[in-house]
Amino acid sequence: MGRIIAIANQKGGVGKTTTSVNLSACLAYLGKKVLLVDIDPQGNASSGVGVNKGDVNQCIYDVLIDDVSVKDTILETKVENLHIVPATISLAGAEIELVSTISREVRLKKALQEVQADYDFIIIDCPPSLGLLTINSLTAADAIIIPVQCEFYALEGLSQLLSTIRLVQKHLNKTLAIDGVLLTMFDARTNLGIQVIEEVKKYFQDKVYKSIIPRNVRLSEAPSHGEPIIIYDPKSRGAEVYLELAKEVIRHG
Ligand SMILES: Nc1ncnc2c1ncn2[C@@H]1O[C@H](COP(=O)(O)OP(=O)(O)OP(=O)(O)O)[C@@H](O)[C@H]1O
Ligand SMILES: [Mg+2]
Q1: Nearest partner of 39 among 95, 96, 121, judged by Cα
Q2: Which Pfam families match (predicted)?
Q3: CA angle at residue 219 from 213 to 225, to 5 degrees?
Q4: In terms of CB atoms within 10 Å, which end of the chain has fewer, N or C?
Q5: Does 189 have pLDDT greater than 90?
Q6: What integer pLDDT is reported at residue 232 of this predicted model?
């Protein structure tokens, strides 16, 4: 059965999508069968792997709200072994529509059960909120990866995320684990970045991945070409480190 990993942090712009897209692509590059699930109405992960949203007939919205089979939404990507369930802006209404739906927190979990055996990893790119889309993701997941940007307010908001994780563990998903905390957009030229690393390590200890994602221009350019870094610029530092991260994630089993 595939391992389901949610990439979540309610804070915006910390590198969730960059990590979802590039970790997925690197896992696929290493020979794993990977399904990337875009559950953010912004649909950035979808465009990041080259999906033209105008061409998408059915997306994760239809799965969550209209009981469409997830199999009917899966698209192939340029990367061998990497498939995606795309999101479009229609998903923006789901957060509110889900409120009055039966078993509203477990809809994604149920939907993914149908395809879990077909993949080694299912990676979910969460939106920047702790609403029902993120709750569905944490309920479906075996583990969570928390990207933390190496900047001054890095730890702010994390206590809220951790208490949400505890609530999900208590009521919806006993076995949800933190796979790791991922430091992103690290700039070795600043003392601040180094301080943040120390602070995050003090707090999360061995839960912090050894791979630290550097600030890398190629990583920020790749999405506009609809390509993960491993295709856009496989020799870049960004590609190297996401590949290291993928190996760490595989080792965690
Ligand atoms: N390591 C990096 N080096 C350079 N730029 C990066 C890096 N990681 C992310 N970025 C850029 O920072 C911005 C935010 O990253 P990203 O979209 O991955 O964050 P996010 O957490 O998914 O945001 P949101 O909360 O809006 O979903 C993007 O423009 C992205 O290209
Ligand atoms: Mg995002």
Answers
A1: 95
A2: AAA_31
A3: 160
A4: C
A5: no
A6: 98
Smallest CA separation from ligand 1 atom 2, residue: 215
pLDDT, average across residues 97-102: 91
Residue nearest to atom 15 of ligand 1 (CA): 15
Q: Give yes or no for residue 191 having a pLDDT over 90.
A: no
Does the Cβ of 229 fall within 6 Å of ligand 1? no
Provide ipTM, 2 decimals.
0.99
